[in-house]
Amino acid sequence: MIADRFPPCVKNVTDRTSNPFGLRPPFDRSDPGDRTAVFGYGDANADFHVVGDYPGVHGGESTGIPFTETESGRAIQDVVRAVDFASGPTERPTLDNCFLSYVHMCSLTDGQAPTAEDYATLERFFDAELRAINAHILLPVGERATDRVLREYTTQRRRFDLDMASLHARDIRGRGFLVVPIRDPLEWEDREREAIVSKLEAILDSDYRQTKGVATLVG
């Protein structure tokens, strides 16, 4: 099993920022000129892991970098930059203490959305990479990613109706993670950008690194 290669609580030694664990997509349905897949990207030893849906929504089919190209993707990258996780070019940023990836990494033709079967096919790849990064804070963006993260990495999915407006920038304890959902930027209202930036700043000011495994904050 892929995940068995990456024992938990062991930090990675790699200088690769794109697809650091060499995952291979199980299928290629991309349009001509697009990347077969938009692999995970960033600091493989990050404490913060931002999880998007798929390239057609959050971008990267041409650049190969998550959270580029689309309006929604650029808005998330703007948040990441606001807390000094990212610097450099927008289309290929330098990331520190932050990793970006998608629940469904493969590109699809003609703007198609992944089917339930497509998500299921890539489930083990996403899980292996997430556990290999072993971040303290999971930041799922949008309903699909939030549902996936809450179901698989917390015991609290049954408590929530996936009302992203109420879940946005909220602390949810997970099994070894703290989960902070992010409403998709295309749906942001009022001060929702400021809310997630403030939440991240508060976490960074806390002793979150001391709480890995119990997923609580001491601040």
What would you note in describing this structure?
The chain is α/β, with parallel strands linked by helices. The protein has a single domain (37-211), classed as Uracil-DNA Glycosylase, subunit E. The protein contains 6 helices and 8 strands, in the order ββααβββαβααββα. The chain has helices spanning 55-58, 71-82, 116-133, 142-153, 164-167, 192-204, and strands at 41-42, 48-52, 86-87, 94-95, 98-102, 137-140, 172-173, 178-179. The strands form 2 sheets. It has a 6-stranded mixed beta sheet. Strands 3-4 form a two-stranded antiparallel ribbon. It is globular and about 45 Å long. Pfam families: UDG.
CATH class bucket: Alpha Beta
Q: What number of structural domains do the residues give? A: 1
Helices and strands, in order, run as EEHHEEEHEHHEEH
Provide mean pLDDT, rounded.
89
- Radius of gyration equals 16 Å
**Judging from the principal axes of the Cα atoms, what is the shape?**
globular
The CATH superfamily bears the name Uracil-DNA glycosylase-like domain
Spatially, the strands of the biggest sheet line up as: 1-5-2-6-8-7
Give the fraction of residues assigned to helices.
25-40%
Distance between the termini: 38 Å
Q: Give the low-confidence spans.
A: 1-10, 213-219
Number of strands: 8
Strand content: 5-15%
Structural class: alpha/beta
Major sheet, described briefly? Answer: 6 strands, mixed
DSSP summary: helix tally: 6
CATH architecture: 3-Layer(aba) Sandwich
CATH topology: Uracil-DNA Glycosylase, subunit E
